[in-house]
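Exercise 7 asks you to align residues with C-alpha cells for two separate proteins.
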Amino acid sequence: MSIRLLVFLTVLTHLSFSACRVIISLTAIHYGASPFVVGAVLSLLTVIPILFALRWGRWVDRTGVRVPMLGGVAAIFLAMVLGWAFPRLETLFVVSPLAGSGFFLYHIAAGQAAAMIGRPKDRVKNFSLLALAFSTAGFIGPTLSGVAIDGIGHANAMLALSVGVLVNTVMLAARNMDVPGHEISAGQQEKRKVSDLLRIPGFRLVFIVSGVLSVTWDLFAFVMPIYGSQIGLSATTIGIVLGAFGAAVFVVRLLLPLVAHRVDQWRMLIAAMLLSGATLIVFPLAHGVPLLMALSFLLGVGLGGTQPFIMVLLYDKAPEGRGAEVLSVRTWLINVSQTSVPLAFGALGAALGMLPVFWVMGASLLVAGHYAARGK
C-alpha cells in the first residue's frame, strides 16, 4: 500500500461517512424527532467504538490493516444501504452505531498504515497527508449531502453518497494491498495493559497534550455558535467565522508535508498551544466580524497542524507491536471527550456566560504548553 492509495481510500471513506452523519441528523429532524432524540441518535456513533476501542486497536496490530479497513468500509456501506432500504426513524438507531463503528475501525487501520508506509522519518509527512484527506472529505461530504437531500430526498441521498465506501469495499476486497501486522505470543497478549503505556517516559505528557488539543478543537465548534448568537450574529455570519477556522486548518495541512522534515515536533506543538491559548483568551473580547474571522483563522493555524505531530510522537513512543493500540486509545479519549466535555462546558456557559468558557479553554492550553515545555 502506498501513501497515495491510502489518501485516496481515506477521502472516499470519510466523504461517505461525513455525509452519512449529516444525513442521519437531517433525516431524524425530517421525521419529527426532538432535539433530544437527534442527540441520542448521533451519540450512538461513538458508543460501540468506546466499548471496543482497545480490542480493535490490538486486532489491527496483529492482523495488519487490510482486513480491518475492509471491515470498516463495508460496515459504513451496509449502514447507508439500510438507511436507504428502510427509511424510518427507528432505522437510524441501527445506522448510527454501525456507521460509527465502521469509521472508527477504518480510522485506526489508516493511522497504522500511515505510520508504517515508508521510513520512520516519513511519518510526519504521511500523517499530514492523511489529515489533509480527512479535512478535504470533511468539507465535501456535508456539502454534497445537503445538495443530494434537496435534489433526491433523504433516503436516496444516503444511497447515492455510499458510493465512496462501495468503491473502497471493492478495491480492498479485490486487491492484495496491506501493511503487515505483528506476531505476538499469547503471553505477551495477556500482559498488555493501557497503564503500561502511561509508565513510558514522556508518554503521559503526549497523551495530556493530545487530549487538551482535541478537546479545544471540539469545544470551539460547540461554543462559537453560542457566542455568535449571543452577540447578535446571523447564522450565515457564524458559518463564515467557523469557515475561517476550517480554511486555516486546510491551508496548514496542505503546507505541512512540505516543511514537516524541517521542524521540531515538540517545539511546533508548544508554539501551537501557546498561540491557540492566547487567541482564545482574546476571542470573547472581540465583537466585530473581521476581527472574529482573523482570530478564528489564527486558531485554525494553531490547531490545524498539531494532529500529525501528535500521531507521530505517540507512534514513535509506542512499544513494538502496539502502535495501533496506542492510536486507538487516543481516538477513544477523543470520543469520550466529544460526548462529555461539551455538556460540562455548556453548563458552565449557562451559569456564568461564555467569557469564562473561552478563558478556561485558553488557560488550559497555556498551562499545557508551559507543562510541555518543561517536560520536553
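Second protein for Exercise 7:
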Amino acid sequence: MGVPGATPKYTKKDFESDQDVRWCPGCGDYAILSAVQKMMPDLGIPREDIVFISGIGCSSRFPYYMNTYGFHTIHGRAPAVATGLKLARPELKIFVVTGDGDGLSIGGNHLLHVLRRNVDLTILLFNNRIYGLTKGQYSPTSELGKVTKSTPIGSADRPLSPCAFALAAGATFVARTVDRNIAHMEETLKRAAAHKGAAFVEILQNCNVYNDMAWGVLYDRESKALHELRLQHGQPLVFGPVDDRRGLVLEGVKPKVVKVKDVPESSLWVHDETDGGTALVLAQLVSPEYPIPIGVLASRPGDTTYEEILIQQEQKAVSDRGPGDIAKLLMSGDTWKIG
C-alpha cells in the first residue's frame, strides 16, 4: 500500500492513454509526445493534478494521448480556457499545447495576453511552418516566398519568430528545442515545467507530408554542426565543427559571426538567460546568415503570477467587506421588475 498523500511512483507508460495515436507516419509529433510522457514522472505531480489543454490542429490531438485530465478546445482559444482553469484551480499543473497556426494566427491575441499576464502555464508551441491539419496552407511562421496551396506564387508575408513574440509579450521563460533531439527536448521541457509563471517553449517540428525537412539544417549531422547554436548560460556563443569553430560577437546590438581563432575569447558574446534584451536578438537570428539558437533564451524566475495577484485581491475584498452576496449583487444598481 502507498503512503497516504504521497505522489505515486510513475513510469512513462502511466502517462500513455488507451487512445490510438493518429498522426501521419513519420510526423515529429510522435517524438514530442514520447518526450513529454517520459519526463512527466520526474515532475513528481499526481496525474489527477495535471491538465493538458489544446486548440485546433495536428498538435491539438495531444490531450487524447495523455493519461491525465485534458480539454480539446476551439481554434486559438486554449490560452483563454487554460487561464480560466488556473484561476479556478490554481493548484493544478496545466500545459497548453498549440501550433504555429493555432497559436500565432487566430490565437495570437489570446497567446499574447496569457504571456503578458504571466499566468502559471507551460505552453508548448509546435512549429512546422505550415498548416498541416488543413492540408498545407502557409502559416505565420512560413518563410517569405513560400509556395503553398494558398500562396501559389509565394507568400508575401514576413515570418514571425515565436520566441521573439513570446519575449516581446513578457513571457518569463522562453526556450527552443527540436523534435529530433530527444535528450535536449526532455531537458528543455523539464526546465519549462519547473518554472513558475508563463513558460513558453517553441519546438521545431517536422511535417513530413506538407513541409518535409522544414528544419532540415538541424537534422543532418554535418549540417547541424554548422547551423545549431546550443545556448548555455554563462558560456560563449560558439558553434561549428571542432576544427572550424565559429562564434558570435556583438557590434553594438548587432550580432556578427566570426571565426573563434581570429578573435580574443573575451570578445565573444556570452549568453545570459537573465538578459531579455539580448534574448530578443537571439530569437530573431535566422539561417543561413546566422546559426539557429537552441536552448533557454530567457528565464526570469520570481515574478508574481496573474493568479497570485487575483487571489490576493479576492482575499483583501473579503477582509475589507466580508463574504460576497451574489443575489444582492445581481439586484444592485438599476433594476426593473416586469409585471
